[in-house]
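# step 3/5: fold
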Amino acid sequence: MIVKGYQGNVYAKKSQELAFRGIYVFNYLCVGCREHIEWAYNKMLENFSRGKNIANKEHLEMMLILSGKRQIKDAIALCSSEGSENIVAISAEDFELSLPRNDKIINFNEKKLKHLKITPWRNKDCEMFFENSAMLELER
C-alpha cells in the first residue's frame, strides 16, 4: 500500500472521485502516523469482507476508524480533506495528486491529538491514535 502526504486540500467531490478509483484522502490531522493510516486501511478492508462495516463506502468507513467516531457526520467533520491545510492519501497502487508533496505531515505531532480530542494518559505518541480507533471496534 502507498501512503503520501500533500500540502493543500481536495474538495469533497474530488475526494469522492478519488475514492471511486481506490485513492482515499483525509485531513492530515486525523492520521496519527503512517502506521495508523495503514492499520485503518487494513481494518476497513477487513470490516467490509466480514460484513462488519458501519458505512457503506470505504472512504467513510476509514474516516470512522481514523477518528474513532461512531457517527459518520462526526467522522466527516474531523477527517474530510475539504478545507484542511494538508492531506494524507492512501491506495493499494501508486498514484500522484496535483498538489505539492510533503510526507513529513504523515508523522505524529501533538496538534493531531488535539484535533481528535485525544487526552494522552501516557506517552504522547502515535499509539494514542490506535487506542482511540480501537474504542470504535469494541462498540461494533
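# step 4/5: annotate
The domain at 2-139 is CATH 3.30.2380.10 (PF0523-like).
# step 5/5: archive (pending)
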